[in-house]
Structure formats: C-alpha cells, structure tokens
C-alpha cells in the first residue's frame, strides 16, 4: 500500500478500490477520488462531443462534396449516430448537451476543422444550419443545396 495519485494513478486506483471494498473509509484519498469521479463525467462529455464533431464533419462532406459521396461516409454517419444514441441512452443527462446552443457551436467548430482538413473545402456556414433532430436522425442526409 502507499501508491500515490501523482506517481502511479493505476496503482493508486486499485488501492483506493481495495480500501473502499474493505470498508477502510478513513484511509481513502477522498479529494482525488472526488476529482476522478468528476473526470469520468467530463470524459463522457468529451466522447459525445468528439462523436458529434465526426458525425457533423461527415454530414458536411456529404453536402459539400456530393460527387465524392461514398458508402464509407454513409457507414461513418450511421456508426456515429448509433454510438451517440447508445451514449445518450446509457447517460441520459447528456441529452441536455445536445440542446445547448453553446455546446453545439463548439461541436460545429470542431466539425468544420475536421471537414476543412479532410476536404480542403473552406466555404462552410459559420453556424450549424441543421436541427439536432436532423443530425441525429437515422434517415436524414443533407442535400447539396441545403
């Protein structure tokens, strides 16, 4: 025993789990455990944002490069939508993020960066023209004229 949070987080986590399961509550590192619990929530939010950015980037590519539309892009769109739906089902409190305009703006900005890097196209709208319902719909795809 005696692993420190700063020196070996995995050993520390295993030790903390052991202490909790053993009922040795006075020996646990409360501050760092609380910090790690908060970080779990942040990790879930980052995963959702990352998946949303990839999804939106592919929707942008679909709309702005119709001549290059492919099954690969369609599969990525479908996979990201499914992964987002699973995440929202497992963590319902994240649903609020998808309706937060600031959060969606951030995801849009990340998606624009991805799309520019992957396509060289740079004439994307400054803000998202689509509803969250369209973005997450199993069947919706943007058309080249909007």
Please explain how this structure is put together.
- The chain has 146 residues and is mainly α.
- It has six helices and no strands.
- The protein has a domain at 41-136.
- The protein is 66% helix and 0% strand.
- Helix 2 packs antiparallel against helix 3 and helix 2 (30-64) crosses helix 5.
- It is elongated and about 65 Å long.
- The mean pLDDT is 94.
In short:
By secondary structure, this protein is mostly helical. 66% of the residues lie in helices and 0% in strands.
Topology of this structure?
Blueprint: H1 9-21, H2 30-64, H3 71-90, H4 95-98, H5 101-119, H6 132-136
Helix pairs in contact: 2-3, 2-5
Identify the notable features of this structure and list them briefly:
146 residues, mainly alpha, 6 helices, 66% helix, 0% strand, elongated
- Helical stretch tally: 6
How many beta-strand runs?
Answer: 0
Determine the structural class based on helices, strands and strand pairing.
mainly alpha
| Span between termini | 61 Å
């Amino acid at each position: 025993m005696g692993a420190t949070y700063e020196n070996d987080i995995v050993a520390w986590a295993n030790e903390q789990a052991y202490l909790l399961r053993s009922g040795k509550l006075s020996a646990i590192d409360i501050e760092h455990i609380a910090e790690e619990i908060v970080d779990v929530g942040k990790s879930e939010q980052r995963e959702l944002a990352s998946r949303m950015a990839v999804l939106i980037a592919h929707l942008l590519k679909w709309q702005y490069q119709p001549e290059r539309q492919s099954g690969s892009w369609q599969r990525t769109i479908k996979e990201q939508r499914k992964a987002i739906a699973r995440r929202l089902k497992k963590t319902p409190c994240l649903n609020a993020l998808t309706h937060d305009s600031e959060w969606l703006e951030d995801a849009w900005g990340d998606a624009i960066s991805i799309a520019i890097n992957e396509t060289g196209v740079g004439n994307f709208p400054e803000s998202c023209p689509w509803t969250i319902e369209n973005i997450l719909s199993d069947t919706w795809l943007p058309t080249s004229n909007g």
